[in-house]
Amino acid sequence: MKLEHIQIQTPNIQKTTAFYQDILELPVIEKTINSVSIQAGNSILKFIEEPDFKSIYHFAFNIPENKLDEAIEWCRNKTDLIVIEDQNVITNFENWNAHAIYFYDNNGNLLEFIARHDLHNSETSAFSSKSILNISEIGIVNENPLELGKQLIEKHGLNFFSKNTNSEAFAAIGNDEGLLIMVRPNRNWYPTQTPSESNKTEIRLQNNGNSFDLKF
Predict the structure, then answer these.
(1) Percentage of residues in the chain with pLDDT exceeding 70?
(2) d(C-alpha 151, C-alpha 157), whole Å
(3) For strand 35-40 and strand 98-104, is the pairing parallel, antiparallel, or unpaired?
(4) Structural domains in the chain?
(5) How far is Cα 50 from Cα 190, in angstroms, rounded to an integer?
(6) pLDDT at residue 30 above 90?
(7) Which residue from 16, 105, 20 is spatially nearest to 59, judged by alpha carbons?
(8) Which residues does UniProt assign to the signal peptide (predicted)?
(9) Are 185 and 146 in contact (CB under 8 A)?
(10) Is 170 exposed, middle or buried, given 0-12, 13-18 or 19+ CB atoms closer than 10 A?
(11) 145: enclosing H helix or E strand
């Protein structure tokens, strides 16, 4: 499953454009008075300006599975990484066979670089913004994640993520290429103390060669 296009909100389009263009060095492919579209590998991340918006999103980017250490050094010159514990910034997701680091964008959105070792996507070139392969996760907040997952599976032929222990509080749909991370409201976004909130989100998915749109 692939996340082709994600549309979310920002209170300040100019500061958001500056962060993704100047800090993460991602190309801006379209900009209007109240929106900006950013190329993130094979995905597009679009922000719509809503001046009164005060909440945050969580989303992740896949990076080459052998480049996490280089990504850490690259980030250190640009933004503060979130410390997990004892000065360590790396999370080891053993069941998912992946390692990840976390940081914030200018909006307070929780961003993640994740190296998924089962994708076998090692690269030899030095880490750069071109190493950001795609949007690999987007957080969706719903009162009943498990039931929402079942509905999406029935309607669109998707699957629960086989490496995840899905529950009524936390469920994931998709695979290592792309995941919908579904959580209950007020569940803290790992590894922070920021509670999840349901925010307007539009997603274009590709699954088994078919593309379709979801709105939350």
Answers:
(1) 100
(2) 10
(3) unpaired
(4) 2-215 (3.10.180.10)
(5) 26
(6) yes
(7) 105
(8) none
(9) no
(10) middle
(11) helix 145-156
Q: Quickly tell me which residue has 């060095």 as its tokens.
A: 25
Instruction: Give CA–CA dist 110/6, Å, rounded.
Output: 15
How far apart (Å, rounded) are the C-alpha atoms in residues 202 and 109?
16
pLDDT digits (tens, 9 = 90+) for 76-106: 989 999 999 888 999 999 999 999 999 999 9
Residue 154, pLDDT above cutoff 90:
yes
Token couple for 27 = 């190309």
Query: Which structure tokens are listed for 55?
Result: 């909440």
Q: Using CA atoms, how far apart are residues 162 and 35, in angstroms rounded to an integer?
A: 36
Q: Distances in Å between the alpha carbon of 67 and those of 63, 79, 129, 170, 189? A: 7, 17, 12, 28, 24
From 164, 157, 156, 155, select the one nearest 137 (Cα to Cα). Answer: 164
Of 18, 8, 36, nearest in space to 135 by CA: 8
Q: Backbone phi, then psi, for 179, in 5-degree steps?
A: -135, 140
pLDDT of 68 above 90: yes
Whether pTM exceeds 0.90: yes
E strand or H helix that includes residue 13: helix 13-18
45 CB burial (10 A radius; 0-12, 13-18, 19+): buried
Paired tokens of 129:
């913004």
Distance, in Å, from the CA atom of 102 to the CA atom of 84, rounded to the nearest integer, reads: 9
